[in-house]
Each structure stands twice: as structure tokens, then as C-alpha cells.
Amino acid sequence: MKTLVILGASGDLTGRLLLPGVAGLIASGRAPGITLVGAGSDDWSAAQWQERLTGSFAGALADDGQSTKDGIKELAKVQKDSSYHQVDVTAKGALGELLATVEGPVALYFALPPAISQKACEVLRKKELPAGTRLVMEKPFGSSEESARALNVTLAKLVAEDHIHRVDHFLGKSTVLNIMGLRFANRLLEPLWNGEHIAKVEIIFDEDLTLENRARYYDHAGAGKDMIQSHLLQIMAIMAMEPPATLGHQDVRSSIAAVLRASTIGNSFKPDLTDSTRRARYTKGTIGSRKVPDYLSEEGVDPANDTETLAEVEVYVNNWRWAGVPFVLRSGKALGRTRKEAVVTYKPVPHLPAGFTGTDSPTRLHIGFGPDTLTLDLDVNGPGDLFTLDRVNLHTELASDPLLPYGEVLEGVLNGDPLLSVRGDTAEDCWRIVEPAFAAWKAGTVPMEEYAAGSTGPDGWTTSHD
Ligand code: NDP
Fold first, then answer.
1. Rounded to whole angstroms, how far apart are CA atoms 330 and 441?
2. For ligand 1, is residue 114 a contact (CB within 6 Å)?
3. Is 231 considered catalytic here?
4. What is the tens place of the pLDDT at every residue in 83-131?
5. Do residue 305 and residue 251 come from a single domain?
6. Structurally, how many domains does the chain consist of?
7. Residue 171 pLDDT
8. Domain closes at, from 104, 135, 167
9. How many A from CA of 11 to the centre of ligand 1?
10. Pick from 13, 78, 244, 265: CA 20 to 30 A from residue 227's CA?
């Protein structure tokens, strides 16, 4: 890629996540020769744009240990040469005019409100795009299966599927590769990685963060759309996928797509959504020394939206490997304990020799996210009485990429590799899977429960282990 054009250059995502990601990537020498162009509907001066770049770049480089001397020089040049353009991207021809002035191939990053991105793509014409253009679409991609499909049709008129990057920054390269490395490079794990040996898989993303002034977005999304519909289903797919022949994007994304195509919330043995989904909202409480107000009294929250701040769904991957195994996807805010991990719980052994005492606990494998870790919980004998079973945890850190998640995403975009991007059919399937749950929640069929901020969630929700 020659030019990265960020639409929505004055927005929150651009300032807080995208530009710091760009800075780390360029400063590490992993994206040479890029020109950066910003565009927005505000009439910003060149000085205002430079000020934004200085702020976002400096913050990103402050504690980064991977920048190279040449990379930092390159970043300074990218900043100096960067320009800002006022463009209403929804006006016919306006974006085309801007694109005619930049050097291709171009990565066109839509850091815009979803409805504006959609409109911008509808008015854009293929002939206005420089050869080799890549389109980068933020989440949420559509707001339903139907709208995601319609957006895919619009995009397909502009560029080929492997030139469309639907961003899910949870698909950071290190996490994806760490899970695949563990699963597919260890004979000990993969032969037991199925419903014959595994009782359940939990994918948990519990945060102690609260609304943090993001009501405008979050009060319409809730935990279900913010986390489960996108990020957690993607992680689930990597946990459940068949071994790909190569790490190329075609093989990996096809394996991911096959899992999601086979997935449903609930299954024929558990068809009732009140059994397979739960939702709750935090009330006032204390997290550490922080006093947290009731969610409904937070600024900008509309009680009529009936937004959940904690959601849990039981997904089934209806294929030979996973039939009947629940994948529990859970995410919430204002919880007393931060937990970001996938937990694989194995079935009990068929027969424990009589004579052992102590608790026979299931074997569990935890894959922690950001920083990535691996912990294996096993039963061993002793200490002291060798007839008594005790628990040990074997733990190791997994490799990480020093780039910020958005740096990893952008590296894929700028190098023309869609490996970490969500494929079009997968984006539609993620909506198809969760839509029945969202409809039941909206209709009030599944009751809204409550939990005090700082607790572990509503009574009876605690997952089966710690
Ligand atoms: P903001 O509302 O902060 O920014 C939106 C940007 O779009 C502004 O720069 C705005 O310019 C610009 N814009 C609006 N209308 C037009 C138009 N007609 N022509 C040109 N520019 C326009 O949104 P966010 O940055 O928060 O979100 C952007 C996208 O990123 C969304 O899809 C969001 O879901 C996604 N996202 C955001 C995250 C976040 O943490 N913020 C995290 C993950 C995804 P102006 O201000 O001049 O109107």
C-alpha cells in the first residue's frame, strides 16, 4: 500500500486507537513508504491535524520498546507529509475527488459512524478507486444479518472480497497464532480436542471498566452486540476450527467460516432461549475504592433502551467434532474481577481407581488473552499423603507482538493480507447466530437480572471454576 486514507480523522477511534497503532507500526519499521491522509467533515486546519498526530504518536511511542531509529525517522517524515482534507463522504463524487489526488494503491479506512460508512460506500463508484484499493470497515458491520448482506453486496461492487478488511481488533495476530500453535503443534492436545473428551468451552471477557462516558455508543449496543456478536464468536471459531492446511488467509478463514456456519445459540436439546441466554445490568456498587453509580443513572443512558451490561449465551457448533458441547460466551462490565480467557473443561476420567481420596477435579486448560498465557490445571498426588489428590497449575506466558492491536490490524491491511480480517459470509453468520437471542431480549422473554457493580455478576451465574 502506498497511501492510508483515514475517513473520520477527527473521531474518537482515530485519535485513541488508530493513530497510535499507525505510529507503532511505522516506528518499528514494519510499514515503510506509507503516506497518511486524514479526512473528516470538520473544517480542520493543517495545524489542527498536525496537533492530533503529535498527540497520538507521542503517546504511542512513550513506552514502546520496539521502535527503530530509522522507523522513528520515517514516522516523523510521515507526519510532516500528512495532510487533512474536509470531505463530506456521503456527497456523490466528493471522496472520488480526494482519491484522485493521492498515490495508489490506497487503503481506505472507514473510521466513521456505521450509517455514514454505508452511505459513503453506496455513493462511491468503482472507477473512482485507484487500482489495488483496499477497503477497511469498522465494527459493527451492519446491524443484522440482512443489513450485513446488503453492505457486502455494496462492497462487492467496488473491490474483490480479499481486498475488503472487516476489522475485528480482537483478532490480533498473536492471539490467533497462539491458539493455533497450541492446538495444532501439540499431539497431546488436538486428538482430545472434541466432544468425546471436552465437556464445555467458556470464552469470558469480564471487565472492571464501567460505562466510561461511552453511553452514546454502548447504550445502543450493550454487552451482546459490543462483545459477543463480534469478538467472542471470532475467538470461539478459532478455538473450534478444523486444522487448516496452511496459515494462509484462504485456509484459515475458510476453517473459521465453517465453524460459524454450523453454530447456533441453543440446540435441539436446549431450544428455549431462556435456558441458553442470560442478561443482566449493574446497579450501584464499589469496584476497588471506586464508587460506581447504577448503570441507569449514568449520563446519557436511556432506560427505554433496556441495555444489558452483562450477557451470556450458550452456542453449539453443530458438527461431528462438537455436537452437544456448550461454548459459553460471556462478557460484562463493572465486574469485581477482570477475567479475559478461554477455559476448556475436560470430561472426568471414565474410572478413578478406588482408594484415591481428595477431590477429583476436571482437567482444565486456560488460554488467557492480553497478555496471552497458558495454564493447565491437573490433579496430582500429595503433597504428604500420596493417596490424596491435589491440584497443580502449570503456567506459561505465550508470545506477544509488541504492536498495539490496531497496529497488527493495519499491518495486515498495508501488506495486503486479509488473514486477520473477517470474511463477508462470516460477518453475516455472526449476526444470524445472535439474532434470535437479541429478539428474545428485546421482547422481554429473557428477564433482565441485576448485579451490584464490583460483584461477580448475579447470584447463580458464577462460572463453574476459578
Ligand atoms: P466518532 O463519532 O467519534 O467519529 C466519527 C467521525 O466521522 C468524525 O471524525 C466525524 O467527523 C466523521 N464524520 C461523520 N459524518 C461524516 C461525513 N458525512 N463525512 C465525513 N466524515 C464524517 O466515532 P468513533 O470514532 O467512535 O467510531 C468510528 C467507527 O469506529 C464506528 O464504526 C465505531 O463503531 C467504530 N469503533 C469505535 C471504537 C471506539 O472506541 N471509538 C472501538 C471500535 C470500533 P466530524 O466530527 O467532523 O463530524
1. 15
2. yes
3. yes
4. 999 999 999 999 999 999 999 999 999 999 999 999 999 999 999 999 9
5. yes
6. 2
7. 79
8. 167
9. 5
10. 244
